[in-house]
Specification:
The protein has 21 helices and 11 strands. The chain is an alpha+beta fold. The strands form 3 sheets. Strands 1, 2, 3, 6, 7 and 8 form a 6-stranded mixed beta sheet that branches. It has a 3-stranded antiparallel beta sheet with strand order 9-10-11, with helices on one face. Strand 10 and strand 11 form a beta hairpin. The relative contact order is 0.09. This is ISL3 family transposase. InterPro entries: HTH_IS21_transposase_type (IPR017894), Transpos_ISL3 (IPR047951), Transposase_DDE (IPR002560).
Length: about 575
């Protein structure tokens, strides 16, 4: 029995017959969850309890409660009142525990205002945390609807709410989303401004607070006039922002440098081939040319099938068949298959040749596994731990499968080395040395030894992080001079671009603020636009971009303190 003054009435509407002990426990758990949700409001009193099944097509939990005879505060003048005018029942939808819709039937009072100077004659009492004026949902459910709209927009939010037992249309979710007030706009001390492509040949402007890194607002235009008008409307910002600085973000500086290194690697394609891992094979007989008859060997099923079809088609041709359609009818084949075999001069030309063997993350460690196996270490778990310490990130099961041939006294397959792509070479050079795996370090050393141009590029690239870490823009001049002296077109063009925007680059090195925050927010903006299939108008897009950023900040995950 609940204490006096608390809700104890609970009704199930439309509940099918429960089956088994587990079902009864589940119903009791949902019952208890709703009661625990409502018993926190001390102004409610009990009105009994009943169970009422009404069909077998879904269920709805209904709770009955009434307010106690306690003073209520006028919604106009906040004066207390005991003078009851009447009672009426409010029906509130609440969050659905266990996917079951919940309705709270709450008997509330309408009271007279005892303050003669108050313009209100009567008012309805409100229960903090449970009722809101002109609203048929509890604040908990209303927040859930608003958050679903902020995170997933209309259609996605409606689907999520349906999974939670709350039925709303996509237009209703959007309507509730647009009613959510935006955070109060404050004049930021540091304002980031950037434009973005909104639609085809239509651009917009996004403002971001440089200190909080949160979006402020956005609009459809990238002209200077709307920005100047916004700055005039916010006190503390002078007209036109004459002291505004252009700051390049470090991400794009690194991206431009990486692309130039990639261009150099693409121009030096012979270097990656010279730095291959596998040593040169001993001299031996030259491999046969593709398509030439090699030594006799047993044919597989695909080869026997291709040879049989080749002989059948050419036999039909030798017997006087004139068209591929006629041969296809005689052999019950597709005419395109007959045409392919008729054009071939040898059946080997029709067989699909296997592609080059695929490389795996375990290939660089096969030599080490073979060495440790010869030394007597036959435990796959220990071998996996050893190569993991060397940089391997794969699963133990792959190591266990790889050493199976050694258990049968068979050799390990030779590691396959695919040719290095220019993008991969650029990533190796630009990544911090401490983040390179042992295999990458070994291969990069061989590559730099084989290619002086890449070695010089590597030295210049590694100087740039030191300039950024020291926040010293004076060292940039000497670095650009050395970049030009290399006489390589990609690096010379990079130096030219950086010199043309030298002030912004220097600010990006010395200033803690940059346009990188704007670039990240624009990326998130485009993601939200794709979620809505590109059909969102500017007001809806502004509402979601601003609110979702604040929502993420509010519910940001923080790791628990150790100990």
């Amino acid at each position: 029995m609940a204490p006096s003054g608390y809700l104890t009435c609970f009704t199930y509407l439309g509940a099918p017959a429960m089956r088994g002990i587990a079902g009864r426990r589940s119903e009791a758990a949902r019952h208890r969850e709703v009661l625990d949700r409502l018993t926190q409001f001390s102004a409610l009193r009990e009105e009994g309890q009943e169970m009422q099944p009404t069909g077998a097509t879904g269920t709805r939990a209904t709770a009955h409660a009434a307010t106690d005879e306690v003073p209520a505060w006028c919604t106009g003048c906040r004066a207390p009142s005991h003078w009851v005018h009447s009672r009426y029942v409010r029906r509130l939808a609440d969050a659905a525990p266990g996917g079951r819709p919940v309705r709270i039937e709450l008997s509330v009072r309408r009271l007279y205002c005892e303050n003669s100077t108050c313009p209100k004659v009567t008012f309805a009492e409100q229960i903090d945390g449970l009722t809101v004026r002109y609203q048929r949902r509890t604040p908990l459910l209303q927040r859930l609807v608003e958050h679903a709209g902020i995170l997933l927009a209309g259609r996605g939010g409606a689907r999520l709410l349906q999974l939670l037992g709350i039925r709303l249309s996509r237009t209703a979710v959007l309507r509730h989303l647009m009613r959510v007030p935006l955070p109060e706009a404050v004049t930021p001390a540091v304002l980031g401004v950037d434009d973005f492509a909104l639609y085809a040949e239509v651009y917009g402007t996004l403002l971001v607070d440089g200190d909080t890194r949160l979006p402020v607002t956005l609009w459809e235009s990238r002209d200077a006039a709307p920005l100047a008008a916004w700055l005039r409307e916010h006190p503390g910002v002078r007209d036109g922002a004459p002291d505004a600085q252009h700051v390049s973000d470090r991400f794009h500086l690194w991206q431009g440098l990486s692309r130039r290194v990639q261009d150099i690697a693409a121009a030096q394609r012979s270097c990656p081939a010279a730095a291959a891992d596998a040593p040169a094979a001993p001299a031996g007989p030259a491999p046969p040319e593709p398509g030439s008859p090699g030594p006799p060997q047993e044919l597989g099923y695909a080869q026997r099938h291709a040879k049989r079809l080749f002989e059948a088609v050419h036999q039909q041709l030798s017997q006087g068949s004139r068209s591929c359609c006629e041969i296809a009818r005689n052999l019950d084949l597709d005419r395109r298959t007959v045409r392919k075999y008729a054009r071939a001069t040898r059946w080997q030309n029709v067989v699909r040749r296997p592609g080059p063997p695929r490389t795996t993350a375990l290939d660089p460690y096969l030599g080490y596994l073979r060495q440790r196996w010869d030394e007597g270490e036959h435990n796959a778990r220990v071998l996996h731990e050893e190569i993991t310490a060397k940089g391997y990130r794969g699963h133990y099961q792959r190591v266990k499968t790889a050493v199976q041939p050694l258990r049968r006294q068979l050799p390990l397959p030779e590691p396959h080395q695919r040719p290095l792509a220019p993008r991969e070479v650029a990533r190796w050079i630009t990544i911090a040395p401490k983040h390179r795996s042992p295999d990458v370090r070994e291969r990069l050393d061989r590559l730099l030894a084989a290619c002086p141009e890449l070695h010089q590029a590597h030295e210049l690239v590694r100087e740039f992080p030191a300039i950024l870490a020291a926040a010293d823009s004076t060292a940039l001049t000497g670095w650009l001079r050395r970049l030009t002296e290399t006489r390589l077109a990609p690096r010379v063009s990079l130096a030219k671009v950086l010199r043309e925007d030298a002030e912004a680059v220097a600010n990006g090195i010395t200033n803690p603020y940059s346009s990188g925050v704007n670039e990240g927010r624009i990326t998130d903006l485009k993601l939200q636009k794709r979620i809505m299939a590109g059909r969102a108008g500017v007001p809806l897009l502004r509402q979601r971009v601003v609110l979702i950023a604040h929502l993420r900040r509010k519910y940001a995950f923080t790791a628990p303190a150790p100990g």
